[in-house]
């Protein structure tokens, strides 16, 4: 294992050889990947050094101090947080070498083709079909996916599709890496309650995927997808925030600057939410300390639940606090943003966008079930869908 | 940039927890506690001796040169988590935290106070501040001859009495201690009358106010850990019960309507743990953020403990409503703790001031 001291000196040597001031951004990022300083817990040769995950902070601190460019992690979040760990866990050597480097340096953006109009919380019920063209041929995919962020800028997608309708739903799914430039892929913006279209619908019509871009064995796609989904939940809520760093910040500022808006009722509610926001911040900090100490706690599965509710309540209070101005909205123009921008917009936008926080990445209702069953060990509800062939399920 | 608080438990703290848990769960018997309470005193003297002197928990806040353990608030917080988990009737919060911290804040200027501190640290004696349990650290302090709602006065050898001229140590035998009927049977309350001129003055008025405020602040901060312990027990016991209890041919804990309530409670308890650790760590390191950390912890943990105890009663349903099942001991302790050392509302008022979020004019 590589230790902190060694990583620090490696990073310094790397910076000396590639001074950020005089090295182009993509050249710098490529060299950083090749030096194993991209994600140190990945294997050597794939952007890492087989080091402990917590040691990435050592590298990042050195790079930040030197003013090095980053790979714009928010723009390529799905690639970094979901596609990469899944490819690492299940990919062939060839797949890992082909995909991880352009993914990490941001040359190729990834999106996720999982949810469907008929398969939301019950993702395993998905109906997009992948049929093999002959025994050794390509897979031919037909179906519709939805809630796909970044689809309009993505070069690749992680895709799950049904390959065996006769099997029970969890057992007939296969995982693929889908080329978004295939002529059968059509991306249409999906306009949201905010007026903009952060997400897309993706229509797949006779999309051909070579078998070499299947990830994991045929029929094991559900298991592979668990790796993806687990990493999604880990990556949500992972940032360290200063006090008032979240949504409470703008409300607190408005409160301080606009005494004429204050009422007793709003005051009590604001203080309650301020305390909850501070406690959520501390809970996140405690989780980070546990991870750094190598004692990952189950708190991670709860962070998203807490933030969803808090964001909604705080932004709701903010709209109400603004009174007459709360009746207005900054802009309903249809746009296709690359990133969600909570702070650059008005309270009304925050209120509407945060409604999605309890839906995206698993609804709060499903997450509460996960906490109850996996953390507290409570029994599952009786089910009648697990052993039935997919084709016979009610829909 | 300010340094981050340490929100984890150290190995030493884990060991201390194990020792306290083994002691209190080994001797904890809710039925016996209730029987003793109805006879007038819920305390188990043997348990207190083992905790205070045996494990040395009474001296955690006290430096070694005064016969203490030279540990700190983080360790005392762990003891309180365990005492909360077992709703143990013991004058730990009142004597080993609040009175001890008050005496420590006097800075060793007074020999009488130092002697008293040594006795407390060794577990030889028990002292409580003669103030209502509901007093918040920021509240104005009473200085009349009679004070009501004093917690654990019945267990005390010495009462620390505030008078206009300062703080006085009064032998319990020199004061009138009149028991009250408390909501929380595991933390007895009394009204205390210390006659004018009784006891020894250990601090002048100005020193006394500052020291008492410091004692109450430490008490409020570490009370959050007791509340965390209460909430943890209530959640764990409710999960255990609903897993084993069958109705409609299935465990009642498999119904989403119940599962979601327990999962939500788990989230709140995770928050309470972070807030309570933060307060204990701030007290231990003497951070400038102590008042903020304490009020955040109190505003949050008070509510979480009450809700956990209320959910515990409701999800146990019929059996949770009985005198026989211990759930009511937790409910009563949690509700009393909500008022103790400042209600959540009081602490939010303090925060409004501290973080500049004033109310309407």
Automatic annotation (TrEMBL), chain A:
Keywords from the UniProt entry: FAD, Flavoprotein, Oxidoreductase
UniProt domain Acyl-CoA oxidase/dehydrogenase middle: residue ranges: 111-207
Gene3D superfamilies: Acyl-CoA dehydrogenase/oxidase, N-terminal domain, Butyryl-CoA Dehydrogenase, subunit A, domain 2, Butyryl-CoA Dehydrogenase, subunit A, domain 3
Pfam family, one: Acyl-CoA_dh_1
GO MF annotation: an example: flavin adenine dinucleotide binding
Chain ranges of the Acyl-CoA dehydrogenase/oxidase C-terminal domain: 219-376
Residues annotated as domain Acyl-CoA dehydrogenase/oxidase N-terminal: 27-106
Cofactor(s) this protein requires: FAD
SUPFAM superfamilies: Acyl-CoA dehydrogenase C-terminal domain-like, Acyl-CoA dehydrogenase NM domain-like
Listed GO CC annotations: plasma membrane
Entry similarity comment: Belongs to the acyl-CoA dehydrogenase family.
Protein name per UniProt: Acyl-CoA dehydrogenase
Species of provenance: Streptomyces wuyuanensis
Lineage of the organism: Bacteria, Bacillati, Actinomycetota, Actinomycetes, Kitasatosporales
From TrEMBL, chain B:
InterPro entries referenced in this protein's UniProt entry, alphabetically: AcylCo_DH-like_C, AcylCo_DH/oxidase_C, AcylCoA_DH/ox_N, AcylCoA_DH/ox_N_sf, AcylCoA_DH/oxidase_NM_dom_sf
SUPFAM superfamilies from the UniProt entry: Acyl-CoA dehydrogenase C-terminal domain-like, Acyl-CoA dehydrogenase NM domain-like
Domain Acyl-CoA dehydrogenase/oxidase C-terminal: 214-353
GO MF entry, a single one: acyl-CoA dehydrogenase activity
Keyword Lipid biosynthesis applies: no
Membrane spanning residue stretches: none
Gene3D superfamilies tied to this protein: Acyl-CoA dehydrogenase/oxidase, N-terminal domain, Butyryl-CoA Dehydrogenase, subunit A, domain 3
Cofactor(s) required, per the database record: FAD
Keywords annotated in UniProt: FAD, Flavoprotein, Oxidoreductase
Domain Acyl-CoA dehydrogenase/oxidase N-terminal: 10-123
Keyword Flavoprotein: yes
Family named by the database record: Belongs to the acyl-CoA dehydrogenase family.
Protein name per the record: Acyl-CoA dehydrogenase
Organism: Streptomyces wuyuanensis
């Amino acid at each position: 294992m590589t230790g902190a001291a060694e990583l620090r000196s490696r990073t310094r040597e790397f910076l000396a050889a590639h001074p950020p001031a005089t090295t182009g951004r993509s050249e710098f990022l490529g060299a950083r990947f090749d030096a194993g300083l991209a994600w140190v817990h990945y294997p050597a040769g794939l952007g890492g050094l087989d080091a402990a995950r917590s040691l990435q902070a050592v590298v990042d601190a050195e790079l930040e101090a030197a003013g090095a460019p980053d790979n714009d992690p928010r723009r390529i979040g799905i690639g970094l947080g979901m596609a990469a760990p899944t490819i690492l866990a299940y990919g062939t050597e060839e797949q890992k070498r082909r995909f991880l480097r352009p993914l990490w340096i941001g040359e190729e953006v990834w999106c996720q083709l999982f949810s469907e109009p008929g398969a939301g919380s019950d993702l395993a019920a998905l109906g997009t079909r992948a049929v093999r063209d002959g025994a050794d041929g390509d897979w031919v995919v037909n179906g519709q996916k939805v809630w796909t962020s970044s689809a309009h800028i993505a070069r690749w997608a992680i895709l799950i599709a049904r390959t065996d309708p006769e099997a029970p739903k969890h057992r007939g799914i296969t995982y693929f890496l889908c080329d978004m430039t295939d002529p059968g892929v059509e991306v249409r913006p999906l306009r949201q309650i905010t007026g903009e279209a952060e997400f897309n619908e993706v229509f797949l019509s006779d999309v051909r995927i070579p078998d070499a871009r299947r990830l994991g064995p045929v029929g094991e796609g559900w298991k592979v997808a668990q790796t993806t989904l687990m990493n999604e939940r880990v990556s949500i809520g992972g940032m360290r925030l200063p006090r008032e760093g979240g949504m409470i910040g703008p409300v607190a500022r408005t409160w301080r600057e606009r005494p004429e808006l204050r009422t007793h009722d709003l005051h009590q509610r604001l203080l309650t939410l301020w305390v909850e926001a501070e406690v959520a911040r501390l809970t996140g900090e405690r989780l980070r300390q546990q991870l750094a100490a190598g004692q990952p706690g189950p708190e991670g599965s709860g962070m998203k639940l807490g933030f969803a509710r808090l964001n909604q309540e705080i932004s709701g209070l903010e709209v109400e606090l603004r009174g007459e101005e709360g009746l207005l909205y900054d802009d309903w123009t249809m746009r296709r943003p690359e990133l969600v921008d909570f702070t650059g917009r008005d309270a009304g936008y925050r209120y509407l966008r945060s409604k999605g926080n309890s839906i995206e990445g698993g609804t709060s209702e499903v997450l509460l079930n996960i906490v109850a069953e996996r953390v507290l060990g409570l029994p599952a509800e009786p089910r009648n869908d697990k052993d039935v062939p997919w084709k016979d399920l009610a829909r | 940039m300010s340094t981050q608080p340490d929100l984890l438990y150290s190995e030493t703290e884990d060991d201390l927890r194990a020792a306290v848990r083994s002691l209190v769960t080994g001797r904890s018997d809710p039925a016996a506690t209730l029987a003793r309470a109805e006879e007038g005193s819920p305390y188990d003297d043997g348990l207190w001796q083992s905790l205070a002197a045996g494990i040395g928990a009474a001296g955690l806040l006290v430096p070694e040169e005064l016969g203490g353990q030279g540990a700190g608030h983080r360790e005392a917080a762990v003891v309180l988590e365990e005492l909360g988990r077992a709703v143990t009737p013991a004058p730990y919060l009142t004597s080993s935290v609040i009175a001890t911290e008050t005496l420590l804040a006097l800075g060793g200027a007074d020999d009488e106070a130092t002697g008293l501190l040594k006795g407390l640290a060794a577990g030889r004696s028990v002292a409580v501040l003669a103030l209502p349990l509901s007093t918040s650290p920021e509240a104005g302090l009473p200085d009349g001859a009679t004070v009501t709602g004093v917690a654990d006065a019945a267990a005390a050898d010495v009462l620390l009495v505030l008078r206009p001229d300062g703080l006085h140590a009064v032998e319990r035998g020199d004061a009138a201690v009149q028991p009250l009927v408390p909501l929380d049977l595991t933390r007895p309350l009394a009204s205390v009358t210390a006659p004018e001129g009784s006891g020894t003055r250990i601090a002048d008025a100005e020193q006394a106010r500052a020291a008492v405020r410091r004692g109450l602040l430490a008490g409020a901060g570490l009370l959050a850990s007791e509340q965390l312990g209460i909430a943890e027990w209530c959640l764990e016991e409710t999960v255990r019960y609903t897993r084993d209890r069958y109705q409609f041919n299935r465990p009642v804990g498999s119904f989403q309507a119940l599962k979601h309530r327990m999962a939500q409670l788990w989230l709140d308890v995770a928050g309470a743990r972070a807030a309570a650790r933060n307060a204990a760590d701030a007290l231990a390191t003497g951070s400038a953020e102590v008042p903020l950390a304490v009020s955040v912890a109190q505003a949050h943990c008070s509510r979480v403990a009450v809700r956990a105890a209320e959910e515990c009663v409701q999800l146990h349903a019929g059996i949770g409503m009985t005198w026989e099942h211990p759930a009511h001991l937790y409910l009563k302790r949690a509700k009393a703790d909500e008022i103790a050392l400042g209600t959540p509302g009081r602490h939010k008022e303090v925060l409004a001031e501290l973080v500049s979020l004033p109310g309407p004019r």
